[in-house]
Design brief:
mainly alpha, 84% helix, single chain
Length: 399
């Protein structure tokens, strides 16, 4: 059996298909040596060689059925021989495939890295657009009426290289421009209202200033009028005081004249009264002396004269003086006269005090009156007081 197997195998190896297959496998190995992959070009070449080696192997494996069909009784042996033939290129194929696998793994990692970097690039562009939008939105939110124009111009002129995301950037740019325009409209309205308030405040202050100026002028005019009025009042007061002074002087002089006339009248009346009293006394003494000289006697019990001789010098009777009368008058007359003299002497201090009081009242300075009504009333009171004092002066003198 072994010999038959050897014969069959030997005959099999002599088959042209086998010879051609073996030659072709060797040619494939020689034509497709191992290549180290360093780049895309070497990768393509490695894949090309790997494919050539693989094609040679698969063609053999496909041709295995053809060969085996001719030697169906020795299929197993053919398979082994085929494996021998395959083994010619398989190590080269596997080696090349391992290199391809290595390079594919490297390429996979590179693709993953590239994908990561791509994701980072995309995210970076997206973040750049978002940062641009956030930055401009923040600037818009804090903008003033003076800065919003520059911000809008800066947004309009902004241009960021975001590669294929340019449309996203333009969209974001449009959004912040719309936001800026709305902010500008709000700021313009706020500025308009502020200017309106400032104008109203300015008008209010101007109005207050004008009112204050009018008030100042009015107060100044009032001060001038008050000063003028005070000066006129002072002038009128001075005139009234001068008139009052003149009136007082006239009244004083009139009073002095009246007092002088009254005094002269009183003195004259006093003299006349004294003269009348003296004459009356002299007449009484004369009559008493005459009666006594004619021989009358004074009856003490009946208080009347009776005729009787009296030793009296004619000369003393004719003189009739108070001293002589007091010496020669009847005891009753002498007693009455003495009592009267004593009474007058006793009351004289009181009478003098009362007269002094009257004179003091006359000498009281009159108060200065500011109005004509008061001056008239004072004058009336003065006249009534003078009349009252005059009537009482007579009573004082009669004490």
């Amino acid at each position: 059996m072994s010999e038959a197997k050897t014969l069959v195998i030997s005959d099999f190896r002599k088959l042209p298909e086998y010879t051609n297959a073996r030659t072709k496998q060797k040619q494939l190995v020689e034509a497709n040596p191992f290549i180290e992959i360093t780049d895309s070009k070497s990768l393509e070449e490695a894949k090309k060689r790997r494919t050539a080696l693989k094609s040679g192997r698969t063609e053999l494996q496909k041709g295995e059925k053809l060969i085996a069909s001719k030697v169906s009784d020795f299929r197993k042996e053919v398979k082994e021989e085929t494996a021998i033939l395959v083994a010619i290129t398989l190590p080269h194929e596997e080696k090349q495939q391992a290199e391809i696998n290595r390079y594919d793994e490297k390429r996979k990692k590179e693709r993953e890295e590239k994908a990561r970097k791509e994701r980072e690039r995309i995210l970076s562009h997206q973040n750049t657009i978002k940062a641009f939008k956030d930055e401009k939105a923040k600037a818009i939110n804090t903008a003033t009426v003076k800065t919003i124009g520059a911000i809008m111009e800066d947004i309009a002129q902004s241009n960021i290289d975001v590669e294929e995301f340019e449309n996203d950037f333009i969209s974001a740019k449009g959004e912040v421009l719309v936001m800026a325009e709305q902010k500008k409209a709000n700021l313009d309205e706020a500025e308009r209202l502020r200017l309106q308030r400032e104008e109203l405040e300015k008008q209010r202050k101007q109005r207050e200033a004008e009112e204050a100026e009018l008030k100042r002028k009015r107060e100044e005019e009032e001060k001038k009028l008050k000063k003028k009025r005070e000066e006129e009042e002072a002038k009128l007061k001075a005139q009234r005081e001068e008139l009052a002074k003149q009136k007082a002087e006239l009244e004083r002089k009139e009073k002095e004249r009246k007092e002088r006339e009254l005094k002269e009248k009183r003195e004259r009346e006093e003299k006349e009264k004294k003269a009348a009293e003296e004459a009356k006394k002299k007449e009484s003494a004369r009559r008493a002396l005459i009666m006594l000289g004619e021989g009358f006697e004074y009856n003490e019990e009946r208080k009347c004269f009776y005729f009787g001789a009296v030793a009296i010098k004619k000369k003393e009777v004719e003189l009739g003086t108070t001293e002589q009368f007091s010496d020669i008058a009847l005891p009753e007359f002498r007693m009455s006269y003495k009592k009267e003299v004593e009474r007058l002497e006793a009351i004289k201090p009181d009478r003098d005090k009362l007269m002094e009081l009257v004179n003091n009242i006359h000498s009281i300075a009159k108060p200065q009156m500011a109005t004509n009504e008061a001056c008239k009333l004072l004058s009336k009171m003065e006249d009534e007081l003078n009349a009252l004092l005059e009537s009482h002066v007579e009573l004082i003198k009669e004490l």
